[in-house]
Amino acid sequence: MSDQEQTSRNVKEAVPFFGVSDMDTSLHFYVDGLGFEMKLKWVDEGKLRWCMLQIGDASIMLQEFWKDSHHTGQPEGKLGLGVSICFICDDAIAIYRSSRAHGIEAERPFVGNGMWVTSMADPDGYRIDFESYTDVPEETIYHDEVE
How far is C-alpha 94 from the geometric centre of its chain's CA atoms? Predict the structure, then answer.
């Protein structure tokens, strides 16, 4: 087996790692709003500094930028600018409905590239997309019966 084949078989998953400005606000969005579950965490001096969240088989990691000590270093400007994470799911419309019911401002689903797509921005501006395969024609826009 070649080195490339060994490396290829060794890699199992990609987990986005978001630097966030406020851990509590981000946890409210991801856990309370979208239904992620905290799987791992690092607490330092009584403060949650890092965590891994999971929804279905997908994960993300969050770490709040330190506001004190030599670990500070939050970049200037909007943190999530230009970053999009796409979660492939079974039913993006169900995610849309659930997130809206939990106070998340999700964009109305539409069909693009053969998938229903609903998008939202987390508190730091990271773009979160949920997408599910469909046979519905391109550019169809979802309309709820109750809106």
Answer: 16
pLDDT digits (tens, 9 = 90+) for 32-54: 999 999 999 999 889 999 999 99
Helix, strand or coil for residue 90? coil
Helix (H/G/I), strand (E/B), else coil: 31 = helix
Please, what is the end-to-end C-alpha distance for the chain in angstroms? 57
Q: pLDDT, tens digit, for every residue of 84-109?
A: 999 999 999 999 999 999 999 999 99
Instruction: Burial-class residue 31 by CB neighbours within 10 Å (0-12, 13-18, 19+).
Output: middle
pTM: 0.88
At which residue do the structure tokens 């169809």 appear? Answer: 140
Give all domains of the chain, ordered by start, each with its CATH number: 3-67+80-133 (3.10.180.10)
